[in-house]
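Bumping my old thread because nobody answered last time. Still need a sequence for this structure:
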């Protein structure tokens, strides 16, 4: 295996971002525009890429899909000189004050690494509505779509029961679909649920009926019932893509998120994490804000000037030939 520290200069970066969602791309945009050699390693996919429409992002029409949103961001990055490659980072090590990365396109080295690897939603078993056309995972993104419409929530835990009750803020017709599973929610949640008009359906889903436009119209159940729904939410937890963070010894929270400060710094010096991999709301504007703060924090750590008094005493005054500190 090639040693990443032997990489040629075109694989050496000041900032390496692992993950190409809104958080990672925003971090890379800030780092690049603030004059740092930056690379994004993106395996593709992710929650943002799955969006058929973009919601809650000021200035972006809802007709813009997730793929279109991300493609525009990548074009912006490349226009400022960042390196973007579609590759998978298989490992990262902290060595000699730098990070050595192994990727499917070869080794690379970086002074700072930003993990923006997100999480994967737990998916229920088929039969299912089409994702984005009746099957959704983000209440804050898509609840508005179902105002005064019949809605389901799939799941059997506290989160599913809570989301079902939350949907009563938008519609009076909410079904909580256990799909044959026994409830695992707490006694407190059970007491709350018993006092909210949520229809708890125990039977398994056996079929899906879609309209001509592909949107869900109804679900079929194994007791022969057909219940009309305009759409709904699957609540089966999430699996955080924290393997790289764990391999570097970064502190993790009990739910699997990476512990960070207000600017995305982890417990490992030089390692940052942003977006859905960290605690907080899983929203594009929130992820972009985290990326911006991380990019600025990294710039403050890496920028050349002003030199400290200690550096000036040991190295002498800054010569005009040494500025500006922007790479070719």
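Sorry it took so long. Here it is:
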């Amino acid at each position: 295996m090639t040693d990443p520290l032997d990489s040629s200069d075109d694989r050496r970066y000041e900032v390496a971002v692992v993950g190409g969602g809104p958080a990672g791309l925003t971090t890379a945009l800030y780092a690049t525009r603030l004059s740092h050699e930056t690379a994004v390693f993106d395996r593709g996919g992710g929650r943002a890429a799955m969006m058929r429409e973009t919601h809650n992002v000021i200035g972006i029409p809802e007709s813009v899909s997730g793929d279109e949103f991300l493609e525009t961001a990548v074009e912006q990055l490349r226009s400022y000189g960042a390196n973007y490659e579609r590759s998978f980072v298989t490992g990262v090590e902290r060595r000699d004050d730098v990070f050595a990365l192994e990727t499917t396109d070869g080794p690379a080295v970086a002074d700072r690494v930003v993990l923006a690897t997100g999480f994967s939603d737990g998916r229920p078993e088929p039969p299912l509505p089409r994702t984005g056309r009746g099957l959704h995972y983000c209440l804050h993104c898509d609840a508005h779509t179902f105002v005064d419409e019949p809605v389901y929530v799939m799941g059997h835990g506290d989160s599913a029961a809570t989301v079902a009750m939350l949907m009563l803020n938008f519609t009076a017709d909410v079904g909580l679909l256990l799909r044959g599973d026994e409830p695992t929610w707490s006694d407190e949640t059970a007491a709350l649920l018993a006092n909210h008009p949520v229809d708890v359906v125990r039977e398994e889903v056996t079929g899906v009926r879609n309209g001509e436009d592909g949107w869900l119209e109804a679900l079929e159940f194994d007791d022969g019932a057909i219940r009309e729904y305009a759409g709904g939410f699957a609540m089966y937890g999430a699996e955080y893509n924290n393997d790289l963070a764990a391999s570097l010894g970064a502190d993790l929270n009990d739910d699997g998120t990476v512990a960070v400060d207000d600017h995305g710094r982890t417990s490992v010096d030089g390692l940052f994490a942003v977006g859905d991999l960290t605690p907080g709301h899983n929203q594009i504007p929130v992820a972009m804000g985290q990326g911006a703060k991380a990019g600025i924090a990294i710039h403050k750590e890496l920028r050349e000037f002003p030199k400290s008094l200690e550096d000036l005493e040991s190295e002498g005054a800054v010569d005009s030939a040494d500025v500006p500190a922007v790479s070719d």
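The domain at 4-120+238-306 is CATH 3.50.50.60 (FAD/NAD(P)-binding domain). Let me know if any region looks off to you.
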